């Protein structure tokens, strides 16, 4: 609707197995369905509008077209073009801001898919196209049709602010994307806490539980909410369960505060389960089960595999984390 006169609707493609002197130039003719002369077709096979379209007057055309070759006698074929006139776009697209957290073991992130931009449009027939601020295109890109966000090359630890736009061809809407790249060290891993949830997928945890869980832990441990960070997310040995590896910055490198934190979390598991409405199977710090070893001599080793990075993305949050492994050894 409301396309200008001369708007190109369709390019017809013709194939002819005859030799060239019996093929082109082809002659195109509209046989029926165009009684008001709303469309016209040129001899290159391009169908264009010859009048303004108003869907309230007519919203459907079935045009019968003939094409004839240059042979003697000329041979021809017929086809139908089914045209529906749709309402012009009247709604702007809606796009959600996205916050992305990337865990890097080292001083840079090697790159990859880091999330997906979510946008919607109330116009049924609108097609959305995404684009990124050109100033950031050397570091990031976004797929124009799907909104998938990609980090291109090795990125330094720190924060990046991106501006992403989405357009339906008439209206354009923008949103801010914040990318946090955080460095983890072996010392941080050694003082991380693992929590296993029952029957929970990573995206479900991020979208439905993470913020409430972070807020609840803040109150239990007496730390700031932003002091509680996800180091790694992955399905556990039982695929329906989820292992979340956390860093709680206030714990520092001292062993005594870590024991206090673990005690507080373990004693608050019933409260956490009630708040979240999800079962917590275990809160780990030392994997000493099965070792004939006094607890004080059991040492846990946590490692991450940067070659196995996973991206778990929801409409507003995305986490890019390495796979983690936890083992225990007896020092005695």
Account of the 3D structure:
Helix content is 14%, strand content 43%. The model is unreliable at 251-256 (pLDDT under 50). The chain folds into 3 domains: 7-84, Cadherins (Immunoglobulin-like, Sandwich); 94-183, Immunoglobulin-like, CATH 2.60.40; 186-307 and 324-330, Protein-tyrosine phosphatase receptor IA-2 ectodomain (Alpha-Beta Plaits). It has helices spanning 186-190, 202-221, 255-267, 269-276, and strands spanning 8-11, 27-32, 39-41, 46-49, 60-68, 76-84, 94-95, 98-104, 108-109, 112-116, 119-120, 129-132, 140-142, 148-151, 155-156, 158-167, 172-183, 193-197, 228-235, 242-248, 280-284, 298-313, 317-330. The protein has 4 helices and 23 strands. Strands 12-16-17-8-23-22 form a 6-stranded mixed β-sheet. The chain has a 4-stranded antiparallel β-sheet with strand order 19-20-18-21, covered by helices on one side. A 3-stranded antiparallel β-sheet has the order 1-4-3, with no helix packed on it. By secondary structure, the protein is mainly beta.
Short synopsis of the structure:
The chain is mainly β. The protein is built from 4 helices and 23 strands. 14% of the residues lie in helices and 43% in strands.
Topology of this structure?
Layout: E1 8-11, E2 27-32, E3 39-41, E4 46-49, E5 60-68, E6 76-84, E7 94-95, E8 98-104, E9 108-109, E10 112-116, E11 119-120, E12 129-132, E13 140-142, E14 148-151, E15 155-156, E16 158-167, E17 172-183, H1 186-190, E18 193-197, H2 202-221, E19 228-235, E20 242-248, H3 255-267, H4 269-276, E21 280-284, E22 298-313, E23 317-330
Subcellular location: Membrane
Domain Cadherin: 1-95, 111-197
Keywords: Calcium, Cell adhesion, Membrane, Repeat, Transmembrane, Transmembrane helix
């Amino acid at each position: 609707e409301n396309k200008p006169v001369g708007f190109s609707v369709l390019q017809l493609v013709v194939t002819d197995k005859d030799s060239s002197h019996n093929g082109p130039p082809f002659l195109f003719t509209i046989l029926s369905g165009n009684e008001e002369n709303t469309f016209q077709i040129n001899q290159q096979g391009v169908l264009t509008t010859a009048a303004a379209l108003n869907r309230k007057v007519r919203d459907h055309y079935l045009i019968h077209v003939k094409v004839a070759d240059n042979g003697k006698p000329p041979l021809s074929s017929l086809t139908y073009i089914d045209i529906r006139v749709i309402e012009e776009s009247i709604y702007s697209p809606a796009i959600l801001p996205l916050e992305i957290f990337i865990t890097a073991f080292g001083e840079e992130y090697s790159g990859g898919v880091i999330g997906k931009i979510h946008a919607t449009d109330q116009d049924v027939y609108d097609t959305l196209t995404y684009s990124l601020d050109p100033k950031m295109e050397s570091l990031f890109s976004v797929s124009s049709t799907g909104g998938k966000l990609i980090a291109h090359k090795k990125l330094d630890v720190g924060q990046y602010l991106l501006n992403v736009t989405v357009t339906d061809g008439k209206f354009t809407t923008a949103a801010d994307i914040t990318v946090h790249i955080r460095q983890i060290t072996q010392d941080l891993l050694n003082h991380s806490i693992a929590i296993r949830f029952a029957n929970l997928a990573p995206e479900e945890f991020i979208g439905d539980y993470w913020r409430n869980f972070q807020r609840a832990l803040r109150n239990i441990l007496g730390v700031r909410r932003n002091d509680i960070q996800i180091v790694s997310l992955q399905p556990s040995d039982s695929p329906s369960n989820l292992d979340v590896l956390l860093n709680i910055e206030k714990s520092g490198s001292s062993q005594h505060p870590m024991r206090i934190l673990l005690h507080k979390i373990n004693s608050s598991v019933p409260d956490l389960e009630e708040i979240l409405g999800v079962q917590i199977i275990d809160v780990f710090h030392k994997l000493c089960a099965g070792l004939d070893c006094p607890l004080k001599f059991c040492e846990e080793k946590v490692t991450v595999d940067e070659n196995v990075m996973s991206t778990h993305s929801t409409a507003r949050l995305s986490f890019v984390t390495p796979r983690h492994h936890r083992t225990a050894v007896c020092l005695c």
